[in-house]
Amino acid sequence: MNDSNQNRGQWSSSVGFIIACVGSAVGLGNIWKFPYITYENGGGAFFIIYLIAITLVGFPIIISEMVLGRHAKLNTYGTFKELSNNNWFWKLVGLLCIFSAVTILSFYSVVAGWTLDYFFNSLVGNFQSLTFENAGPRFGEFVGNGEKQVLYHTIFMFLTAFIIYRGTKGIEKAVKILMPVLGILVFLIACISFYTYGASDTISFMFNFDFSKITSHGVLEAVGHAFFTLSLGLGVMIVYGSYLPKGFSLVRAGIWITIMDTLIATFSCFMMYPIIFGTQMEVKESAAILFTTLSVQFNALPMGNVIAALFYLLVAFAALSSTISLLEPLVSFIDETYKINRKIGTIIGAVGVWIMGIASALGNGASEFFTSLALMDKLDYFTSNWSLPVGGMLISLFAGFFVSEKAKRDEFTETENKVFFKAWNFTIRFISPLLVLLVILYKIGVF
């Protein structure tokens, strides 16, 4: 354990830590990706496969990241450097995690900015005239407006940096507001959807355990999402874990984070499916459907503009809780590696990411040059298919084989060491890395 830095921030409570981790995990993947892949893979049976996958992949690796972080009490890079005795390869893995977080944040903040425009326009009723014919062109015109794209990207990065600027206290205060409001909004919109379109089709679909509909494709989708949904492979949970005092149970925290993330994803299904089944809405994988087809469907609801505004506020809150966690690994790295004041480090990191994001902001039609680069799609492909899963797999292997058993056992309670440790240690050595490797091979088209 590293004792050289006694002035690092700490979470004030286990509740604050758990909510911050849930905030990191909950994002567009919960609001749209999970309902989409569940819809495409048969509903209830896929959900059971997903629960098994998150037990074998998501939960063990999130515990691994928190164990590494709390034991080293350092940023992601510093953790690998400390626990590997300055091994060059593992230091590169730490840098890979930080690079992945920064890369995702650079384009994620652009997409997050879209929610602000749709929130404001929904609130004042500007979308009441949207139809299926003009919603797509309106969205295309919006993302092709360079001034608006840069403006909303700037606003979102400013909000993110403002919260990170204040350290763990700022993060904790923000997520304690964002996450309860997000949970209430998901529940409220789900209730409105049920009331308007009925619940029978959705309940039947979600509790239809027909395993004959499950394919190898569906199993790998479940495993992949179980990994991606918890923000693994980014070093976020290493950094968040490094701020956690010794007295808190990592196993209990991991269980709560996994359960709450899954609940948000499940209620997102209850929010979306009544609209899908009730209107025969065309379902597409791209998150752009949230800003095209769905924006039209809200018009059919009573007080549709208010409900639409609440929905886009919900997505904005989910995005902000994620962007906060994506910036933190970079800021903690700058702060601890180069001994730069955290506030200055936040400004340096945020401005750097903001500059990176300009290419994505102008890459959807605003600039012929940046559009030709298609950088947002390329960065999304690289992080989703390579850097995140490779980083997560290596974190699992590092915790399993290269960190001493004593160091790992020190992070668990006596009861957890007796009941949990051996099963977890075996899983992160053999089961989790193998399943993540299968996802990588699947994502790149090997099978």
What can you see in these coordinates?
It contains 20 helices and no strands. The chain has 447 residues and is mostly helical. The chain has a single domain, classed as Amino acid/polyamine transporter I. Helix 4 (76-83) packs antiparallel against helix 5 and helix 7 (146-164) packs antiparallel against helix 15. The protein is globular and about 65 Å long. The chain starts with 13 loop residues before the first helix and ends with a helix.
Q: How many individual β-strands? A: 0
Order of helices and strands: HHHHHHHHHHHHHHHHHHHH
Quaternary structure classification = single chain
Question: The biggest beta sheet, please?
Answer: none
What CATH calls the topology is Amino acid/polyamine transporter I
The tally of helices reads 20
Please render the helix and strand layout as text:
Elements: H1 14-25, H2 28-40, H3 44-72, H4 76-83, H5 88-123, H6 135-143, H7 146-164, H8 167-197, H9 200-206, H10 216-228, H11 236-242, H12 250-279, H13 293-297, H14 304-337, H15 342-361, H16 368-373, H17 375-402, H18 405-409, H19 414-419, H20 421-443
Helix pairs in contact: 1-8, 1-11, 1-12, 1-14, 2-10, 2-12, 3-4, 3-10, 3-11, 3-12, 3-17, 3-20, 4-5, 5-7, 5-14, 5-15, 5-17, 7-14, 7-15, 8-12, 8-14, 10-20, 14-15, 17-20
Short description:
This protein has helices at residues 14-25, 28-40, 44-72, 76-83, 88-123, 135-143, 146-164, 167-197, 200-206, 216-228, 236-242, 250-279, 293-297, 304-337, 342-361, 368-373, 375-402, 405-409, 414-419, 421-443. By secondary structure, the chain is mainly alpha-helical.
